[in-house]
Amino acid sequence: MSSEQSAESEHDPESHSPRHAGFRYAVGRMIARPLARVIYRPRIEGRENVPQHGAVILASNHLSFIDSMAIPIAAPRPVHFLAKSSYFEGTGLKGALSREFFTSVGAIPVRRGAGQAALDALDQQRRLLDDGLAVALYPEGTRSTDGRLYRGRTGVAFLALQTGAPVVPVGLIGTDRVMPVGARMPSLRERVTVRFGAPIDVSRHGAAASGKARRLATDEIMSAIHGLSGQELAGVYNEPPAQGPIDKIKQALPHERR
Question: Where in this chain does the record put each Phospholipid/glycerol acyltransferase domain (predicted)?
Fold first, then answer.
């Protein structure tokens, strides 16, 4: 393989897929789970609610950077999630360590953004589910910086309705105290609680092509997450402040948040 081909494979999302990274993930999971349990002593509830086989979506609230580590560590089966592609594209020793770490915890690189980037991310998640894997997603779209639970975007419901995968709601408690936004290192004094709720079959709401079905399914999922996390409800979407008049108009108009 040429050096150019080698470089391409490092940045190719397919080279980090579960099929290619299975051994590294298995080793990382074998090491990380017992180590994290010793250090953080997480409280784990409802593990029996996670199906042992077949496609499943773990839909969680999102409070901290470490949420994507807490869920795979607590789950009774391998769980995969999408992570910013920049975590896999660094150079030198730091880049290599970042790439190996995120691969070992089940992360799959994706280029984030709106429009086509968002559709590509949904398609990548659908392929994981089509392979019978478990994926973790955050319906809020981004971390809550004030601890409240924001309205869910409909991408999770779309995937569930499209693939038929059950949705297991997850309530994370305390991850924002273990590693607050802006912190460089996690605290060793706090404990995390991970609660897995009963699986939800959203198919009764209708087809994936129906905006009403996606909204109803999303609201049902968010209600279950709220019951597990106990957070205050924000009642709005978690999105950055509008940067200009066009963005303000877009946010004011009624539209479905994917």
Answer: 56-175
Helix, strand, coil proportions of the chain in percent (round to 5)?
A: 50, 15, 40
Single-letter amino acid code for the residue at 228: L
Structure tokens at 114: 């709106």
CB–CB of 145/206 below 8 Å?
no
Q: Is residue 232 part of a domain?
A: yes
Tokens of 26: 């298995």
Going across the sheet that includes 193-196, the strands are 43-45, 193-196, 167-173, 56-60, 134-137
DSSP 130: H
For residue 19, which phi and psi values (nearest 5 degrees)? Answer: -70, -35
Residue 39 domain-assigned?
Answer: yes
Residue 239 lies in a domain: yes
For residue 43, tell me if it sits in a domain: yes
Kindly report the CATH number assigned to the domain that includes residue 104: 3.40.1130
CB contact at 8 A, 76 and 170: no
